[in-house]
Design brief:
This protein has about 425 residues and is an alpha/beta fold. About 25% of the residues lie in helices and about 15% in strands. It has 13 helices and 14 strands. It is elongated.
Length: about 425
């Protein structure tokens, strides 16, 4: 089915917006004439034109009645947003056929865009590859259906089940190949990495995406696993056709020669997605020398605290906060909830463990308020829709206890 090849090209393009679209979905669009792509575009950033509108604005030729517009997400039709709706523009530009990947889960759209196009006499086909389309935008889907970001737990352990050394330096568990896979298929596919302050204190991680040339020539290893063994992965086979969602061999013949180039969705090795870092740190214990609160990482780091509630050293807290904010760190003050149902933690932690809660009562951060803060655009911050939780043990347990885990990936090494 050649429609699938063009939808996959939309997905490749859509991924170019990773890390730039905020709470908006990742969307790509292609215009096809006589079986060849003649124009393409993607949603490049929060507040910027949507993919299909961008394509049609840039395409300065007349739309032929036989041209087909492909888009991985149903075109929007609502007006309560920053950008103009796409449906009316598609109609006005004279598009006569549209193929879409999935229905928009936003209740303000949810099939209304498709209905409006059909009412205008446009032939509409779809959904095509809806599962792959939902997979790409799982964060947006989660935000629309659950009211929170998509959450993936990423953990590493030795074959005997250890995750840390009992004492001494941090325990290195995963191999170079495993690290490369994790950066490519986990970190680069999420908007933010979350850890408890204990991880910062013990490991001083960078919590960013660092690509390696390894997978340029080793894509087969990504599919087959490490050491030649089959590697379980929560991602679709299409995601393992190289780095992006490439058309299958059967579909490629329908694409123009120019579209057989390396997928546009794949970032350059020296330009990985610039993701956010979230540190849960109730008492603001994060060291000023930690890498995540120093340039160039500080401007995309958020530290979640409980403010001065229960803090004895209020002046020291405020002075430290001012220093961090001066570096570009975003400090998010959160109420502390004593309710185990809503709490980030059901039991208090020792001062040196997990999230460093300086409290005596049972409870922790109120997740619902945190999700609201993280998914609400504010100035230059455009929100997030997916989080990769990387540690440590107490943090993983807190997410599991609250029933907030959508997916878990465990790497075994050592």
């Amino acid at each position: 089915m050649r429609d699938a090849g063009f939808i996959r090209r939309c997905l490749d393009l859509a991924r170019m917006g990773q890390g730039e679209t905020g709470i908006n979905p990742l969307v790509g669009a292609v215009l096809v004439r006589d079986g060849k792509i003649i124009a393409e575009a993607f949603h490049s950033g929060f507040g910027k034109p949507h993919a299909e509108r961008q394509l049609l604005q840039n395409f300065d030729q007349k739309i032929d009645s036989k041209d087909t517009l492909y888009v991985n997400l149903e075109p929007c039709c609502h007006k309560q947003k920053k950008t103009p709706q796409c449906v009316q523009y598609i109609i006005d530009r004279g598009v006569k056929k549209l193929v879409f990947g999935m229905i928009d889960p936003n209740p303000m759209v949810a099939g209304k865009g498709i209905a409006a196009l059909r009412n205008a006499g446009i032939e509409v086909i779809g959904p095509v590859l809806p599962e792959e389309c939902r997979r790409l935008n799982r964060g947006f889907v989660s935000l629309m259906t659950k009211g929170r970001p998509w959450i993936t737990i990423h953990r590493a352990q030795t074959r005997d089940g250890r995750i840390t050394n009992s004492d001494g330096p941090p325990l290195k568990i995963t191999s170079f190949d495993q690290d490369s896979w994790a950066h490519t298929f986990l970190r680069a596919r999420h908007d933010a990495i979350l850890v408890g302050v204990g991880t910062i204190l013990s490991d001083d991680p960078q919590l960013n995406v660092r690509y390696n040339h390894w997978y340029e020539s080793q894509s087969n290893t990504l599919r087959q696993g490490f050491g030649g063994q089959e590697l379980w992965t929560p991602f679709s086979d299409a995601e393992h056709q190289g780095i992006g969602l490439l058309p299958s061999q059967a579909d490629t013949q329908h694409l123009s020669s120019s579209s057989r180039r390396s997928p546009a969705g794949r970032r350059r090795m020296d330009d990985p997605p610039d993701i956010f870092r979230i540190v849960l740190d109730a008492g603001l214990r994060i060291p000023l020398k930690a890498r995540v609160v120093n340039p160039p990482l500080a401007c995309r780091t958020m530290v979640v605290t409980k403010g001065t509630e229960g803090i004895k050293e209020i002046k020291e807290f405020k002075d430290k906060r001012k220093l961090l904010e001066g570096r570009g760190v975003r400090i998010i003050d959160m109420p502390f909830s004593p309710s185990p149902r809503l709490a980030g933690l059901a039991t208090p932690l020792p001062m040196g463990e997990g999230m460093g809660m300086r409290v005596r009562e049972r409870g922790g951060f109120d997740w619902q308020i945190l999700w609201s803060k993280l998914t609400t655009p504010d100035g230059n911050y455009h929100g997030i829709t997916s989080i990769l939780v990387e540690g440590g043990l107490k943090t993983w347990e807190a997410f599991h206890r609250a029933g907030l885990v959508d997916e878990e990936v465990t790497m075994v090494g050592g």
